[in-house]
Predict the structure.
Amino acid sequence: MRRRCFIALLVGAAAAWPLGARAQTSAMPVIGFLNSASPAPAAPLVAAFHQALQRNGYTKGRNVAIEYRWAEGRYDRLRGLADDLVNRKVAVIAATGGLVTAQAAKAATSTIPVLFIAGFDPVQEGLASSINRPGGNATGVGVYTTELGRKRLELLRELLPGVAKVAMLVNPHSISTAIERRDLEEAARLAGLVLFVVEARAESELEKAFVEAAAQRAGALIVSADALFTSRRSQITALAAQHALPASYPWPQYADAGGLMSYGPSLTWAYEQIGEYSSRILQGAKPEDLPVQLPTKFELVFNLKAAKSLDLAVPPFLLARAHRVVE
């Protein structure tokens, strides 16, 4: 009799264990990770996001789940992907990959916290009421790469004092393009430069854009901070080398991938901040009380191997101002 009771107890425990495990899994908080680009090129940035979570006690698969949604450069998919995360009832949406992602997530929900990385003023774009007190359900990081186009043009002129015509590579599907283009056109006009725009909506259009820039006899190139381009940085820097076109880029990752020069904040830092804020929200913080984080450091990086391939000598006064040099 005792043996039968013992076996029944074991069987009952074995049957109940999966139910308990499922209950524990279902109680695990879920972060929705929404990005406008592709997973492979963003892997180091996602790693920085994970590391920030781990510093705050959250490990994927152990005590937090992460649902990834990648638009693969097709921005028209973002709203549907954001709606999917809302239906999944995630605890927070990390809306990375530019302003277009942030706006898609913000449009999808007014209650789930949204953490953005915006390249333009988040207050002006309606993502937050103010920097210090965002209000609503969204906060995050403002990297202001759109406004840095003027500075990158200035640095190009210091490197290439004889340049007269500059091309600008943009994605016409990006929300920030009109703002970025307007600012650079004004800066070019004041500097007495000719600025013309070449467009690429997808990876397949990048080569055509560089052929057009070469045909227009551009002396230099400014690459927009659009997430599509960032995810294709190896292809873009290779095309710039192929067409012997000195180019200025918005993120240090371009210089590390073989690009001539970059100027801007650390994108890795921005993803770390999103990980930090995700942790704080899981711990009970409200997005309206978390100020929008702003970069305090802007890095100038030169790739001397790229300069040598272009027969360019980076002046000592520019090298002295560089935060880092890639040999």
Q: What stands out?
A: The mean pLDDT is 90. The chain has 13 helices and twelve strands. The longest helix spans residues 2-27. The longest strand covers residues 30-35.
